[in-house]
Specification:
single chain, 298 residues, alpha+beta, 5-stranded antiparallel sheet, 3-stranded antiparallel sheet, 10 helices
């Protein structure tokens, strides 16, 4: 058993990892290999089925609090699998308690590799070209869905409430820019972009996917990968396939603020439900930083 295994962290024991209905997706009983790290919401395990390595994800009981639509995720994964953009879907439990995908051998995408930004832009274009689904990311509604699960007694609550009010103009601004909706991944973090051993770039963990504004994914990439201004220009121009103008940069800035705001809300929910060890002081600091940045967008 790997030394990283911690039976006190809420994870399942090896003997109870494999679902009882495994025969629906495996010819022989799958074997537990090891727990996987990196996920903050769900419990994920590497398992084997015959010669194949699979990833088994037990969904978080906080799915509703985190506004996760598991039915949409299954639909999106099916489409992304056929397009070769994700770890191929093996099975989705109809009750949405767990999910099984193929395990992809590879390493996280890195912005410094030659041609990395251009490859990322091509992947994003292919994701945004996938057939539409019925789920729509409405920023205002998404944010409001988080609030009932946030403790009003938290030290950061008053600052978070100020942020809620201050960002209303950014949300209105991006709605004015909207040109329509496309299918977006909405969570392109460092852990969710994988360069496979056959040099293919894929995205994993599609649980936040929905229809929305393509600039949300662009903003997430800028923030999560800390892209420099030069790299931001490379990404936007490669993605848009045209020279950039002032509105492109203004639109990106507003979406970056909104993305940061939703991330703060996500951590506030996790902290309030005792599922995250984030220091509440860190959430306070994030709120203060955002409040200082908002005037720059006007």
């Amino acid at each position: 058993m790997p030394s990283s295994w911690d039976p006190t962290d809420g994870a399942l024991s090896p003997s109870t990892v494999i679902p009882s209905d495994w025969r629906l997706w495996s010819e022989s009983r799958p074997l537990f290999v090891r727990p996987m790290t990196g996920g903050l919401t769900n419990r994920t395990y590497l398992i084997s089925s015959g010669e194949a390595l699979l990833v088994l994800r037990h969904n978080s009981p906080l799915s509703q609090s985190l506004d996760l639509d598991r039915a949409t995720e299954a639909q999106v994964l099916d489409r992304a699998t056929h397009a070769g953009l994700c770890a191929p879907l093996v099975y989705c439990d109809p009750q949405h308690e767990y999910l099984v995908t193929r395990f992809i051998q590879g390493q996280p995408w890195h912005k410094q590799r030659p041609g990395a930004i251009e490859r990322l832009a091509r992947l994003l274009n292919r994701i945004h070209a996938l057939p539409p689904v019925n789920s729509q990311l409405g920023i205002e509604q998404k944010a409001e869905n988080y609030w009932p699960s946030i403790s009003t007694q938290a030290d950061f609550y008053s600052l978070l409430a100020r942020l809620r009010s201050a960002l209303s103009s950014s949300i209105r601004t991006v709605e004015d820019y909207r040109e329509g909706s496309c299918l977006c991944h909405n969570d392109l973090t460092k852990e969710n972009l994988i360069e496979s051993t056959d040099e293919k770039l894929i995205a994993i963990d599609w649980e936040y996917a929905s229809m929305g504004d393509h600039y949300y994914d662009l903003a997430a990439l800028v923030e999560e990968h800390q892209l420099s201004p030069v790299q931001q220009q490379q990404l936007l121009s490669s993605y848009l396939q045209r020279p950039l103008n002032r509105d492109d940069w203004r639109r990106l800035l507003h979406w970056r603020l909104i993305y940061k705001y939703l991330c703060v809300l996500w951590h506030a929910v996790q902290w309030s439900t005792k599922k995250d060890r984030t220091d509440p002081g860190a959430i306070n600091t994030q709120c203060q930083t955002l409040l200082q940045l908002i005037p720059l967008s006007h």
